[in-house]
Specification:
304 residues; alpha/beta; globular
Length: 304
């Protein structure tokens, strides 16, 4: 297992500058953010295009991978987290088209995993969204298979504001849906496991790892703090709005010793990628780096 970072927070910093800092700071692997170039206003922690995958030649792909390798850095996966089940057909087609570009780039770079969301329509039920996923996702899965790739889906419901309430923009967060995903596409789709979401969803983290461990293909380390006053005022039917607070590892409620114990127990074969969404450490690259270093020092004892 190697310890690394998701590059998304460094939206204005070139990839190789991020890589130089990461390598000098003791990180060993990157998950590279691959949103469309010049997309315009995006949600927080999205929109970073560290590789222009839509225009990536074979030579450029090899050059990027080789340069990162020369710095002592591996690539855990290429990351792009849109909503492939968006209710607007034009938007849906656009993001699925770019997801295909990301998969093509992964093949060219020799990266075996692409990380994304399954998506969801916030106005639909879980079952209705699942029916739509069964219609939309077979073509995406076939494209991944044709390119020799696995797809991982993060277990994040994507509910942070009123436009995502009540059902969220990603249905792949509960055992209820994950059992269906793996039964249907388990040979191609696996989990991009992030324990922080299970904290506020009140889903047993250790039981989740025990059940789905063989299907965890990627691991993002983010922490979660529960604002008890916000929870008191809004209640659980607010779906975390106003009381879920993403933190860097070590500053929230995830018990990292137990998480790593269970990941090692189920034989998780991959790396640990720090996902930084902590507002206390953002605004400048120096603050972002400080947050990553807090997370590094928390997690390093478990990653050898």
């Amino acid at each position: 297992m190697k310890l690394g970072i998701l590059t998304a927070p460094f939206a204005e910093t070139p990839l190789m500058d991020v890589a130089d800092w990461a390598a000098a700071s003791g990180f060993e692997v990157l998950e590279i953010a691959c949103w469309p170039v010049a997309r315009g206003t995006e949600r927080r922690y999205a929109g970073t295009a560290h590789i222009d995958v839509a225009n990536l030649s074979d030579g450029q792909a090899t050059e990027i991978a080789d340069e990162l390798r020369s710095k002592g850095l591996a690539i855990s996966g290429l990351g792009y987290y849109p909503n492939p089940l968006h209710p607007d057909p034009e938007h849906r087609a656009e993001v699925i088209g770019h997801l295909r570009h990301v998969m093509t780039a992964a093949r060219k770079m020799g990266v075996p995993v692409v990380n994304t969301f399954m998506g969801g329509d916030a106005a639909r039920t879980q079952d209705e969204n699942w029916d739509e996923a069964r219609r939309v996702w077979p073509d995406i899965v076939r494209f991944a298979q044709d390119n020799g790739l696995r797809i991982t889906i993060e277990n994040c419901p994507m509910i942070f504001g009123r436009d995502e309430w009540p059902a969220g923009h990603n249905i792949a967060w509960s055992p209820y849906i994950w059992r269906r995903i793996l039964e249907t596409w388990g040979d191609t789709i696996g989990l991009n496991f992030d324990p922080s979401h299970l904290v506020w969803l009140m889903i047993d983290q250790e039981r989740f790892i025990r059940e789905f461990g063989p299907h965890i293909l990627h691991f993002q380390a983010k922490d979660m703090e529960i604002d008890r006053d916000g929870l008191y005022v809004r209640g659980t039917l607010s779906s975390g709005i106003g009381w879920q607070i993403p933190r860097v590892p070590g500053l929230g409620e995830v018990q990292w010793g137990r998480i790593f114990a269970d990941l090692y127990r189920v034989g998780y074969p991959g790396d640990c990628i720090i996902e930084h969404e902590d507002r206390q450490f953002e605004g400048t690259d120096d603050l972002l780096k400080r947050g990553f270093l807090v997370a590094r020092d928390t997690l390093r004892p478990f990653v050898k």
